[in-house]
Write a structure and sequence with these properties.
The chain is of the alpha+beta class. It has helices at about 10-30, 40-50, 105-115, 130-140; strands at about 1-5, 55-60, 65-75, 85-95, 120-125. It is built from 4 helices and 5 strands, in the order E-H-H-E-E-E-H-E-H. GO terms for molecular function: acyltransferase activity, transferring groups other than amino-acyl groups.
Length: about 160
């Protein structure tokens, strides 16, 4: 397996991976997530080309089997939050047929190294409350609960 920078040629694989994670999220939380749609291709292309995100893929035998994207953020607007450099992971997904094989861990390790190189003092990510498998994965890697986002549906 190889971890490398994503590029536009990877778009079809990225769309498929996005569909996989999108279906899970829509099934478990339709009040928050939309079903996968053709608009995701344009969204992913913009993320790839925009330069705001560090976008990595895991490749095995010439096929993209996972991706992670992250960006560096510094709080500049909220005076009561420490102004530190944070790596914020946007999405990580591994192809259904390659889960529990070390792909996610390799992607997280590569992102961790990039975060250090970028001067980050912490890494943050959000995980949905229903996603017990993902929570266990992150905890295994040393991540702990730091924030809790609560919601209430009105209509």
């Amino acid at each position: 397996m190889k971890i490398r920078q994503a590029n536009v040629a990877d778009i079809d694989a990225l769309v498929e991976l996005s569909r996989q994670i999108g279906e899970i999220h829509y099934e478990k939380a339709p009040h928050t997530f939309m079903p996968p749609s053709p608009e995701e291709k344009a969204f992913l292309l913009k993320a790839l080309e925009g330069g705001e995100y560090h976008f990595l893929v895991a490749e095995h035998e010439g096929s993209v089997i996972g991706f992670i994207n992250a960006r560096i953020m510094i709080n500049e607007s909220i005076p009561f939050i420490v102004k530190k450099t944070v790596c914020r992971i946007g999405t990580i997904v591994v192809d259904e047929s390659h889960r529990s094989c070390g792909v996610g861990e390799a992607l997280m390790k590569a992102c961790y190294s990039w975060a250090i190189e970028s001067g980050a003092t912490s890494i943050r990510l959000e995980v949905m409350a229903f996603n017990e498998r993902a929570k266990a994965f992150y905890q295994k890697l040393g991540y702990v609960d730091d924030f809790c986002i609560m919601s209430r549906q009105i209509a």
